[in-house]
Amino acid sequence: MAKGNGREQTELSQNLQQLSEKARTTTEFIQRLKQMSEKLNGECEELERQVDARCDALIRSIERRRQWLIDAVRQDKEIKQRSLKDHVTSCTCKLQKTTSLLQFCIEALKENDPVSFLQVGSMLIARVSNTDMTWHKDVLPSPRSYHQLDLTLDDNTVLKAIEHMNFIQMKTPSAALIIAEECSAENNSVTIAWQPPASSYVEGYVLELDDGNGGDFREVYCGTETICTVDGLHFNCTYNARVKAFNSAGEGEYSEVIGLQTSEVAWFTFDPCLSSPELCFTPDNMTVTCEGFEHRVALGSVGFSRGVHYWEFTIDRYDADTDPSFGVARLDVSKEEMLGKDESGWSMYIDKQRSWFMHCRSHEQRCDGGIQVGSTVGVLLDLNKHQLSFFVNDEPQGPVAFNGLYGVFYPAVSVNRGVAVTLHTALDAPSDLEDC
């Protein structure tokens, strides 16, 4: 019997322990509920303060607008009152002159001497007739109304906006969706388009691109638009792009990544906006001439910072005693002197018999062989080796002209009177160079 009691006591003790644990857990849960209630009260009070503050700000804005509108009404009233006053003054003056004319005519009609009447009669008839004809123009108001305020207060938009004021459940946005069919790559630019995430409040977007070699992503755009074009990228590279939306609650997830391939070879034209204003270009911006005797520089429309690029010029016109200069330049190159004379230009200038390489006014490496009408001058910019070389009629013109080229370089040429050259792009680079 004692064993039975011990077993029951153990079972009761275990049950009491379990029940006590549940009571303790319930007590803690009740405490958390009370804390949540207190937090809820605090959040409600803070939200009420925000509502009061924002509504007060709206009321102050309405008060300022009300005063502006009242001032506008009073200003319009003053303008119209001045017009009415001026019209009254004009009419009064006209009436006084007309009254004087009437009195004078009445006295003239009393004249019994026909000869005396004839002396003033014709003149009075003309004055009365003219006054009668101009009466409508001088006295009656113009079609513009001076006594009405042509103002109607439009408050429908504001009233609707006030009626639509409400609370929103602010959450971080969902992932944006890139629209693949609207994305494209052209030359060394890519365009990415995306659509807003469904059922999300969005304040803006962040667009990121990698380095074209699978490296880290970097931010290239932040704003509210849903399409962006990024210029100045490397040629013959695949750029990965992704976008994310954000609002005051935080940033959403990234979209899926899209890859866009830039062109293998560059096609470009002369850029009149980057070139000397004294140059003349054909409508397609492929041919350049100059009317002056001094050299003026024309730049291409793209800049290169990586890869191998080759383009050519054909000589369309070439008079004696002139030497065009071909090469590359930075954007800040002097446009008012021969290419290569300052530190921002690297060039080969050439005449009918020979050529020289020039940079910072220093010219060297004279090579025989010149140009004439129909000749081609090729420029090879190898930014993998950081070198610049030249060709004439598909043959190397001397050795490598310049080494150690780092940064961004634009195709360039300088011409003066008597020279016309046409640019040809998107060409394959020639084979290895041979010494002059």
Automatic annotation (TrEMBL):
A single GO cellular-component term from the record reads: neuron projection
Q: Which InterPro entries match?
A: B30.2/SPRY (IPR001870), B30.2/SPRY_sf (IPR043136), Bbox_C (IPR003649), ConA-like_dom_sf (IPR013320), COS_domain (IPR017903), E3_ligase_FN3/SPRY (IPR050617), FN3_dom (IPR003961), FN3_sf (IPR036116)
Please list the residue ranges annotated as the B30.2/SPRY domain: 247-432
Q: Which UniProt keywords apply?
A: Coiled coil
Q: Give the lineage.
A: Eukaryota, Metazoa, Ecdysozoa, Arthropoda, Hexapoda
The organism of origin for this protein: Aphis glycines (Soybean aphid)
Domain Fibronectin type-III, chain residue ranges per copy: 173-265
Keyword Oxidoreductase tagged: no
**Which Gene3D superfamilies does this one have?**
1.20.5.170, 2.60.120.920, Immunoglobulins
Q: Which SUPFAM superfamilies match?
A: Concanavalin A-like lectins/glucanases, Fibronectin type III
Q: Please give a single GO biological process term from the UniProt record.
A: axon guidance
Residue limits of the COS domain? 109-168
Quote the protein name from its UniProt record: E3 ubiquitin-protein ligase TRIM9
Q: Does the keyword Coiled coil apply?
A: yes
Pfam families (UniProt xref): fn3, SPRY
